[in-house]
Design a protein that fits this description.
The chain contains nine helices and two strands, in the order ααααβαααβαα. The chain has 235 residues and is an all-alpha fold. α1 runs parallel beside α3.
Length: 235
């Protein structure tokens, strides 16, 4: 039983993903976001438990990826699927209205590909190549919950949603390095990129909370992507 404790924590992540998916298909976006956040917590804890207990096995690694596909791939896809039913369709796009929502599951497909690449890529021990699936899931979930009114308004239509979704699918598998928020030391010289990110993220958190609401999470993740691209281009 103790040997399987990390796997049980991973299964809690999987269950949270299933609950988030079910909530999304019923239009309960806030509940879906809460379950994705819980899944992310369990995803973080299972590795800590495994390391603390000195347990490492292939089953746990495979199970972790399967759980992540559900929580951070299928669940946000279900939320986007429902969002396609709420957004405005331009007149020329209305013939595709019954079919376009199914394109949301591209997020699940690209998330699965991202996780498969991560498991086989030895370059991603200290940083990431492509957008991590938890960040992508939290971006979409918090954006939909916090800005549902704007997303369903004429100012943001189905075409913009489709193109925006494709852009994030690309970021999931793009050969773009993104820094990890892990600190080996607190020295400024080694962590100035991370400190700069955190400083702006705190400003967004405190100043944007009243304006953006829960979608401040989405704004911080978007800032993370933009800052990582800037660092990549100037380095």
């Amino acid at each position: 039983m103790l040997f399987n404790l990390p796997n049980l924590v991973t299964l809690c992540n999987l269950i949270c993903g299933c609950m988030a998916t079910g909530a999304a298909f019923h239009g309960h976006f806030a509940w879906a976001l809460a379950m994705i956040v819980c899944g992310a917590v369990f995803d973080f804890i299972d590795g800590l438990v495994a390391r603390a207990m000195g347990i490492s096995n292939l089953v746990g690694k495979e199970l972790d990826s399967l759980a992540d596909v559900v929580t951070f791939g299928v669940a946000p896809s279900a939320m986007i699927f429902q969002l396609f039913g709420l957004v405005v369709y331009p007149e020329w796009l209305q013939p595709l209205q019954p079919y376009l929502p199914y394109s949301a599951f591209l997020v699940a497909a690209f998330s699965a590909l991202r996780l498969a690449k991560f498991n086989t890529d030895e370059r991603q021990t200290e940083s990431f190549i492509g957008l991590p699936t938890p960040a992508n899931a939290l971006f979409w979930a918090s954006l939909i919950v916090g800005q549902a009114g704007f997303l369903a308004s004429p100012r943001f239509n189905a075409l913009w949603l489709f193109l925006f979704m494709l852009m994030f699918c690309f970021f999931l598998v793009a050969e773009v390095p993104l820094f990890a928020l892990k600190f080996k030391t607190l020295a400024w010289e080694e962590n100035r990129v991370k400190y700069a990110f955190l400083a702006v993220a705190l400003v967004i958190l405190f100043l944007g909370h009243h304006v953006l609401g829960v979608s401040v999470i989405a704004a911080i993740i978007l800032w993370y992507i933009i800052w990582a691209l800037i660092v990549w281009k100037v380095s």
